[in-house]
Design goal:
The structure holds two protein chains of two kinds. By secondary structure, chain A is α/β, with parallel strands linked by helices. Helix content of chain A is 33%, strand content 27%. The chains are: A alpha/beta, B mainly alpha. The A-B interface holds A 68, 71-73, 90-93, 95-97, 99, 101, 103, 105-108, 116-117, 120-121, 148-150, 161, 164-165, 168, 174 and B 166, 168-169, 171-178, 182, 186-187, 190-191, 193, 265-269. Chain A: This is Carnitine transport ATP-binding protein OpuCA.
Chain lengths: 267, 273
Amino acid sequence: MLTVLKDPIARPRPKAEDIKIDVSKLGKVYETKKNRFEALKDVSFYVQNGEFVTFLGPSGCGKSTVLRILAGLEEPSDGSVVVSGKEVTGPSVERGMVFQSYTLFPWLTVRENIEFGLKLKKMSKKERAEITDRYLKIVGLERFADSYGKELSGGMKQRVAIARSLANNPDVLLMDEPFGALDAQTKQSMQHLLLDIWKKEKTTIVFITHDIDEALFLSQRIYVMDARPGRIAEEINADLNLYKDNELVNVDKFMKVKKHIVSMLQH
Amino acid sequence: MEPPTKKKRPNKLFKIREEIPKGWYLLGIAFAFLSVFLIWSTLSWLNVVNEIFLPTPFTVVVAFFESIASAEFWGHIGISVYRVFMGFLLACLIGIPLGILAGTFKFAESAVLPLTEFIRYMPAAAFIPLIMVWAGIGESAKIMVIFIGCFFQLVLMVADDTLRINRDLLSASYTLGAKRIQVIFKVIVPALLPKLMSTMRLIMGWAWTYLIVAELVAANSGLGYTIMKAQRFLDTELIFVGILVIGLLGLTIDRCFAIASKKLFPWAEGGNH
């Protein structure tokens, strides 16, 4: 059942209208007078509508660069990035992003943070309140609506960041190791929460992590990346029914896939 | 088995960076103030140092109350406070926007920071003769000395505060739909405010220093002038009073900044006292 393909592009692609993100031959080079660093080379991949895709790889493999380019925060040196049929030329509300560092605006309350994007859209007060209430509830922070960031734990801050992105109703949610700084228990409950939200909201999610278990638990498909130069080493189908009700049920298959990925990353 | 030997715990008061009971803390403060007072008292009352050079605490206290009972002295305080605030305000009005620009745009940085870094090392006091040539010895001359003393430091510090704002905070606002101008006014400026407040607090201290520099050299009013005049007549107790009053004024303003900061930015993390 394990699909391991040498070239991800060789895999039969889904129909064009099902593709949300289409990236081909992406390259990124950082150049200074003395050095030339090839952060990404020939990276091609796609993400389907409503899919949960993870980029997995060691630090320095360029996975965050891929995400920042998708967000429009960095420009590619080469190749094309198309999201929802449009070439990415800069950041946009259509591509929400959650960062590893806590990016709550500390001078705003939880509610005002979630409203930030809606206010920029000049949405009416009533509409704003409705959407904000809904997402406060989804991430379970109704009681903290009027708290400031400094009163919240790390997990709560990331919940606000997720709610803030989703409130904008983005086409795609980009997540850059959002749970990387959390303790094990919090991380797990955040993963459960994220999966619930994904199932409910049907948002397309691109998720970055270096944690194999996290990638296998969350995603449908995994792109394993390798460094120097940053590139996609392998595409892995992770939609393997390994879990039931958030519990690992297919331990054998899980171990097999995990071992394979570990060997990929060690090589 | 032997019972574990009871080892004495090391003294709590001298643990590195550890909290101590509040009472002990207050005791430390009282001890420091009392020691200074005691040394001063012994030296002056036992006439170890001639009273002309070191007045007794009693004479200073008497002189202090005599001074603050006179309208003339309040006039000096008033004019000094006026000069400090004008120089400081002028430095803030021009320096803060310039600092924010320099911390936001590389182009502004290139135009502002290297030049400022250079001028910063020219001592403000050395400008006084030049300022007197340009602006005479009127009010504007003193305000200018304070301005020069504060402005260049302020620009550099504000630019640095602005640069320290977490980059991801700006990135996040872009992905939430903010345009450049909105990033500046809705993210950079509010994120900067608490740091700005403490920077201004620091610069206010500098303003007082330069005020006295300006008044010692060329003035016929103000607290610096009273100190100068007292020196001429060897009224050492009045020098003490002048220094004391400047200290008290500085402390009051500093406390005001601290309280305002706490009230205005309840969301700011730590370091707000």
